[in-house]
Amino acid sequence: MIRREGIAMVDVNAFDAVQAGLNCDHPEVWLFLLRALSKGQPVSRTSIAEALAMSLPDVEVALGTFADTVYDDNGDIVACGLSLLPTPHSFKVCGKELYTWCALDALMYPRALDQVVQVESRCPVTGSRVCLTVGPTGVSYVSPAEVVLSMVIHGKKGGCCNVRSSFCSGVHFISSKKAAATWMSQHPDAFILSVPEAWQLGNTVVQRRLEGAAGVTGHD
């Protein structure tokens, strides 16, 4: 059951709506990019083509479905959900400080990377620091203890990396239920999830992508 913490019930179909909005047409490219970016270096189109046995034109077509992807001056990828460029959500993996586009990404990616990750963010309401330890099987540490996530329903299928403005900009770690009530008063289209609920949502999305990317090679 999804609920607005202490405020009002939310339609149970919200889970399905969020999942549908985060579809991924090329999960094998998404997974390779995620794992390559986690090494802390830009990713070239050529490396994608070689790792996935794709032609460069096919790589271009796939990348065209990830419209929010960020490139450097050399044309290499520096952000596609996981980012080499700073965002409000710090994501420390294997000793490298990276970033994610939203709070849900920070809960999803440890499963896809099969790594334990240190996440640090700021509550957009209070400005207070939020810290989590997230692994492939769940969240083992969260501070403050009352942290929840703000969430929005993307109105249409936007693709896994095409929703930065319409979805990611509304998905944050909120430091407490009181702060969440303030956020809800300012963002009536949002709803609130507990950390376990949000992790379960992200895990379901990642599981679908991993199944779609079965057989991906060259990302170790």
Describe this structure in words.
There is one protein chain. This protein has helices at 14-21, 27-37, 45-52, 56-64, 103-113, 177-186, 195-212; strands at 3-4, 8-9, 70-71, 77-80, 82-83, 89-93, 96-100, 117-122, 129-135, 138-143, 148-151, 173-174, 191-194. The protein has 220 residues and is an alpha+beta fold. It has one domain (3-212): Beta-Lactamase (2-Layer Sandwich). An eight-stranded antiparallel β-sheet has the order 3-4-5-7-6-8-9-10. Strands 12-11-13 form a three-stranded antiparallel β-sheet. Helix 3 (45-52) crosses helix 4. The longest helix is centred in the last third of the chain and has 18 residues, at 195-212. The radius of gyration is 17 Å and the shape is globular. The termini are far apart. Mean pLDDT is 86; it is low at 1-10. It comes from Geomonas diazotrophica.
